[in-house]
Structure formats: structure tokens, C-alpha cells
Write a structure and sequence with these properties.
This protein is mainly α. The chain has a domain at 1-206 and 457-494: Serine Threonine Protein Phosphatase 5, Tetratricopeptide repeat (Alpha Horseshoe), CATH 1.25.40. The chain has 20 helices and 6 strands. Strands 1-3 form a two-stranded antiparallel sheet. α7 (140-165) runs antiparallel to α9 (188-205) and α11 packs antiparallel against α15. The chain is globular. It starts with 7 loop residues before the first helix and ends in an 11-residue tail after the last helix.
Length: 494
Amino acid sequence: MKINYKNTVIQKIGLLTLFSTLFIVSACKKSFLDVDPQAQQPAVTFWKTESDATKAVNSIYANIRNWANTAFPALAVESIGGDDAEKGSSANDASYLNSFDNFTVSSTEGQLQGFWEGQYQNINLCNQVLDNIPAISMDANLKSRYLAEAKFIRAYSYFRLVRAFGDVPLRLNVPKDAAEFNLARTPKAQVYAAIEKDLDDAAAVLPATYGSADLGRATKGAALALHAKVAMYLAKWDLVLSLTNTVKTLGYDLYPNFEQGFRTNHENSVESVFEIQCELLLNNAAASNSQYSQVQGVRGTVGGWGFNVPTATLAAAFEAGDTRRDATIIFRGETTPEGDAIPATGDNPMYNQKSYVPFNTIVSGYNEGSQQNVRVIRFADVLLMNAEAANELNDPTTAKASLNKVRARARGGVVGVLPDVTSTDKETIRQAIWKERQVELAMESDRYFDVIRQGRGTAVFGPKGWKAGKNEVWPIPSTEIDKSAGKLTQNPNY
């Protein structure tokens, strides 16, 4: 059972009113999602009871599955720039997404604005929880947990921002007056420090597991694993190793069948460290609002629109016998393991199988695949972070143990394929780990930023137009600079 978000869309819209920006409705976003809230609770009567606190925290989770966080803006900023994904769909549909693939994007591009707004909306909801729940008379343990959950999501959103833009405004409280709305960019080192503090605070409070009614909420393991990823971007290898070693003791494991681990009936599995919870709620289409699967589904079928598709580079990256290739990529003309026949002709030769929802579970009148969760951190990622940290700290034995555990699952029990990495050479192991991250985490919005943090942007993305000294970050949205009256500055060379 997932967190019950039903009707939280009503509360969410009310809570967002203190923020200075609003949702932008993309031209490809279905208009029926842009609905007026009914029976909205006035802010003046809110923040009084434990029930109010619960609604507010649930609204945070509801917001992170919306268009800006999981559809075009997120896929443009976090996926399409990489070498494992490209725009997809028909050539003329949403052609502006190509500017992310060939690095011609300008500061006026709407998906940048959407992504920026989506993250700051998350942050604003978290800040409202953190500012207001402490004064509510309620169960003390639940209060502490709610504050920790808000800190986790705030850290997650700031991590997405700082990876994408570098220095960004750091807002840790709800603005109290007009002057507090307009903040300059904060140096990224300070943003990272705030992220790490939030995650330390969250990990100290969050439980390792939940009962079925709260499945999908942030856990101790999620806070520790996200902190490990943040530390990896900062090359704090001792910390990465320590954090991932702790996560390894919390009961996670690899789901035995890689392909099945991404299906809706195996969500929140033993491999799941954190997933964005999505749901199809009959008789509540407005709350069944995730478009993550819809925008990536097989074009020309009931599956979806066909954007953010795998590339030939990705298809060629898998070793012979790697079961992840067919589990990651839907090929034109195939029949999926769930029995869906994919047309042999169409706009694209490949589609993202990790976002795929079997056609017989799609309900007319609702976003296709709205029930498909978004895998944010899996235990496989934790193992590969552990391997990379151990290798950088000159411990090849630990590095190979974690790396080879991931490879063993990918063999699918077939002898003679995907042999264990046996070298003790640090550079050889490093390259093997980086390659494993490419194929294990393909189409999960890690590859683009992985390559940049590894210092390989020019080598890997240069042929696509990527330039050092510029494309390590995306441009700050021009609308934000305009609204700040120039207080926000642009990234170099944009």
C-alpha cells in the first residue's frame, strides 16, 4: 500500500500560495490537469492540528511526482543531454527538446524554467512544514519524523538544482517579507553543506522501515544513500564508503529479476531505497497526475508519447548476454515479457522499458501509466557507489565484491557471460565501475551528471556539442533573472 495522497492535490495548491512562482502548463501537458481546487482550506485556519501536519507532509510527496519533477522539464535537464537518451517521438513534436541534446539550449527555454520552479515549489512546501509544524501540539515522535521527511525532500530538490545549475539561491525558511523573496545565488559549496546537514538530520530520525500504510515515505536508508550520492559528487570518498556500508546493513538487496523490478506490481521492493510514489486513483483523475510513464511510453500504441528514448550508443554499451539490455530497452517489433506486441514500424526504434506499464493496466481517461513509480535510488546504485569509493580509497577487494554483486544479477544465471572483474589495477576497476553505472542505471537520469562529475564531459559529450567551461551546468532561466531585477546572475558563456 502506498502513501494515501488522495485529495492532497487540494491541500497542495493552497499551500503553494506563499511562493512567488506558479506552475507553467506545457503545451504538451493535458489541460484537464489544470483544475481549480474545490473546498480549499484557507491558510489562516491551517497549521493547527496533527491532521494539518499530515496533509502538509503528504502534499510534499504529491508534488514531487508532478510534471516539473518527472516529465518534460526533469527529462530535459537530467536525461536528454546524456549519451544514453535522446528526444524521441516524431521529429517535429517538441523539437525544442533537441536543444538539450545538442547543447544549444538558451536561458529562455521553458523546460529550464519548469524544472527550476518545480524544485523550488518542493522546497517551499518543505520550508512551510519546517517553519510551522514545530508549533503544532501533536505526537512528538510523529512531529520529529515529519520534520525529517521534509528535510530529506528539501535536500533532494537542492541536490537536483545544484547539479543542474551550480550556485543557486538557498532558501531555508518561508519568506517573511518582500526583501526575503529576492535572493542572490548562493555558492554551491554552501548549498552542498546545507544538503548534507539536512540529510544528517533526517537520517538521525527517520525509521529504517514503515508499515504498509506509510510505504514509500523517506527512510533512514534513503537519507544515508542520498547523502552518499551527494558525497560522491564532492569526492568525499571516506564518507561515501562509510554511508554505503551502513546502508548495506539495513536489509536491502538486489531484486532477483532486473526487468520485473521495474514493474508496478514490484514497486517498493527489497531493492528500493527511495521511489517517487505515483498512483492511479479511480474517480480522481486530477490526483492521478503523474505523466512520467505517459511521456515515455511507446508511441503509436496505447502506451504514450514516445519521448526520452534510448540511443544506439546505449544499446551497444551492454556486454553480450547482459539481461539488462532487453530489460532496459523496448525494441520496435518485439513482444514484451508482459505480452505487449510493439509495432514493427514507427517513429523510434527504441523506447524506455524502465518506465513501461503493461498495456492491459492502462485505464482510459487517465494518464497512461500514471501508477508507475519513479525509481530514484536503488540498492544497485548503493553497491556501485560503495565500489567506487572503495576503489578510490585503494581497497580493490571491497570494490570488486560490490561491483561483481551487481554483475552477477545481470548474468541471469547464465554461465560464461558477464564474468567477474578480477583485476587489482585501480584504473581498470574505475573504468569498469563507470561502465557498470552506465548500463545498470541507464535511463534513470544519472548518466549525464555522472559523466560530468567524472571529468569526461568533453570526451563523451564533445561530439554532441558539449563545451568545457560552459556545459558543466545549464543556464539560469532568464525569467528568474528578470524577476530578480538582475540580482540573479547568469552562468558563464550563456
